[in-house]
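Table 4 source record.
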Amino acid sequence: MNTKSFVKSIMAGFTIGLGGLIYLSLENKVIGSALFSVGLFVVLTFGFNLFTGKVCYTIDKGGPTALDMISIWVGNFIGTLILALMIRGTRVGAAVSEKATALCEVKNGDSYLSLFLLGILCNIFIFIAVDEFKNNSHELGKYLGIFLGVMGFILAGTEHCVADMFYYNMAFNYSVNAIIKLLVITAGNTVGGICINYVCKKIK
């Protein structure tokens, strides 16, 4: 992966973090989940490299390689970290950090199986959003897919590894348990994204 692609990965993490910031800043989950969609909207319209979107297409001919995905994951993490550090230096930092900490405590207290399965389910929603944007011939359908997919994964309580990177960075939680849980969620996202893409190809 070249420098330009890595920067696109960092930007994807940063913009998904912006979605997470909006979500944590609002009390209403429905409105928060709808506005979180800003993150994925920017990723798709600007062509940034988001792990959960790209991993779905690793089985496609000419799709991202394993090394590409590792680089994208690292770039996404850096992007969420940059944003989290910026927010922590502002007047809203304490309140956002408190909410992120509460979210991370739930994740850290969950079982590996639960997080893995929630990761799988999350990337089914993400695949729907990304694939609709790529392939829907109707302009409204392209963007509606983004909003419905993102709202679905958030309101259903599923686990998105890049959003979780932002929450963990915002909570300043880098325990061994947190790292393992994040990797389990990443594995779930990977399996979910690849499987839903494979099934959709087979039934076309």
